[in-house]
Specification:
The protein is α/β, with parallel strands linked by helices and 467 residues long. The chain has 16 helices and 17 strands. Bound molecules: zinc ion (ZN). The site of zinc ion has 7 residues, from loops.
């Protein structure tokens, strides 16, 4: 065993490396060296002797001071970053399969209102474990249904993330506009505004960690214009800014939402948010599908970010996000799998493929390059979460969040461009997934949790919801 004074050095060598740094550095056969939590060398060929702690003796290897991995046939990329999700929705997959967003929500709200910490914990664990299997090293969560007798739901998701080992940015979501007040959710699925604000402040005080290597940061996330009052939106933004945490919400997802805002507020969803002080570089919005040119210009001018969720938009028939225009306008854009119940696959590398194909189907073959799509899932996500100095690329000094994809199996052997193979092809096996230098997946198997046990416990949770 190594002591804290002599962290293990991990050497990945003989692999293709796509760094996603600002220069677009790539190496056909290169190395990545990790010491403790941090990347200490990246480059072509073998690692330079100075990047290793002394000679790589058989003794150093056998005692575990240095671990060398011959990664021939693999591609090293930054771990992927998921910027929109609802982990608890793992428990309602396969429902309302051919519905619009409002129909789907109306059918699922009552099931979500029956959840508690005992059901959310295994559902979130399953969702996180699956995300890891698809190359995700950092994820946010947007939990917004807090039944009165549900217990500590946010704590349940945080415990799940700590168990699986992912870097976690949960947001304290909320709804306070029930059906009797003109909202979409039933009254028993919403909370009192003061309770939301108290719980939001408590979540920040208890959990938010601003340290550079932080594994846990909190955000605040009232759900949507049709489930939250303007008072809560305004006060949550004020609270978040006082506390120095990021703000998140759904916006401009469907035509139905645009119609709802026109009828209730006399304006577009974006103008509504703008009027409540909700645009800025500390805000990122999920979806942003239904935007005209003026809305895109306004969002760009305020530095507001967007989490693009193409699979969910496709499953719900919500529309096609103008990602090419958003990127061209200088937006911070990341990718999100969205809740498991509206994307079903919940694969982050799958979302990179979907983003590429969706953009090209709408805007032609040059609307999204394969490297541009991978950028959304790496540096794009890091920028949305305010972590671009710490994660999102393979560079010396950055945290060791690394995905090592195996590209020499049946699905990919012989592919001319490893990035094209990763983005456009089938999901490759993950040879290794590191988060903060810790191994989460090895040889395409989770090492932090037992996959079969998680599947069984998530099934029990689903059955309990239907009792
Ligand atoms: Zn969502």
């Amino acid at each position: 065993m190594s002591s804290p004074a002599s962290p293990v050095t991990l050497v990945l060598e003989n692999c293709a490396v796509v760094t996603m740094d600002g220069q677009g550095s790539e190496y056909a056969s290169g190395h990545v060296v990790v010491t403790g939590k941090v990347i200490t060398a990246v480059g072509t060929g073998s690692p330079p002797p100075g990047s290793l702690p002394g000679p790589v003796s058989a003794d150093a290897v056998s005692t575990g001071t240095i671990r060398r991995i011959d990664a021939s046939g693999c591609l090293a990329t930054p771990g992927l970053i998921n910027t929109h999700h609802h982990l608890y929705q793992w428990g309602t997959r396969g429902m309302a399969a051919d519905a619009t967003l409002f129909e789907w929500l109306t059918q699922l709200y009552p099931v979500w209102a029956r959840m508690n910490a005992d059901t959310v914990r295994p559902l979130a664990t399953a969702a996180l474990a699956w995300l890891a299997r698809t190359g995700c090293s950092t994820t946010m969560d947007h939990h917004y249904v807090f039944p009165r007798t549900g217990g500590d739901l946010l704590g349940a998701t945080i415990a799940a993330a700590q168990q699986v080992g992912l870097r976690f940015h949960p947001t304290r979501g909320s709804m306070d506009l029930g059906a009797s007040s003109g909202g979409l959710p039933p009254d028993d699925a919403v909370e009192d505004r003061d309770a939301v604000l108290l719980a939001s402040k408590a979540a920040v005080d208890q959990y938010h960690d601003d340290a550079p290597e932080s594994m846990l940061r909190i955000g605040l996330a009232p759900c949507s214009p049709f489930s939250v009052t303007s008072e809560l939106l305004t006060e949550a933004a004020e609270l978040g800014r006082r506390a120095g945490v990021r703000l998140h919400t759904h916006l401009a997802e469907t035509a139905d939402e645009s119609q709802y805002c026109a009828e209730h507020f006399g304006c577009t969803p974006l103008d509504y948010l703008d009027s409540l002080g909700w645009l800025g570089d500390d805000v990122w919005l999920a979806h942003a599908v239904h935007l005209d040119d003026a809305a895109i210009a306004r969002l760009a001018a305020t530095g507001t970010g967007v989490a693009h969720c193409p699979s969910s938009n496709g499953r719900l028939g919500a529309g096609v996000c103008r990602t090419h225009d958003l990127v061209a306008a200088g937006f911070r854009v990341g990718l999100g799998v969205d809740g498991a119940a509206s994307s079903e696959e919940s694969s982050l590398i799958g979302e990179v493929r979907q983003a590429t194909l969706t953009a090209r189907a709408a805007g032609g073959p040059r609307a999204m390059s394969v490297r541009g799509a991978l950028e959304l899932a790496t540096m794009g996500g890091a920028r949305l979460l305010g972590r671009d100095r710490e994660i999102g690329s393979l560079e010396v000094g950055k945290l060791a969040d690394i995905a090592l994809w195996r590209l020499d199996t049946l699905a990919h052997a012989g592919v001319a461009d490893p990035v094209a193979g990763l983005v456009l092809g089938a999901r490759p096996p993950l040879e290794l997934l590191l988060v903060n230098g810790e191994t989460i997946i090895e040889r395409d198997q989770l090492v932090t949790v037992d996959e079969r046990e998680i599947a069984a416990s998530s099934l029990r949770a689903v059955l309990s919801l239907n009792d």
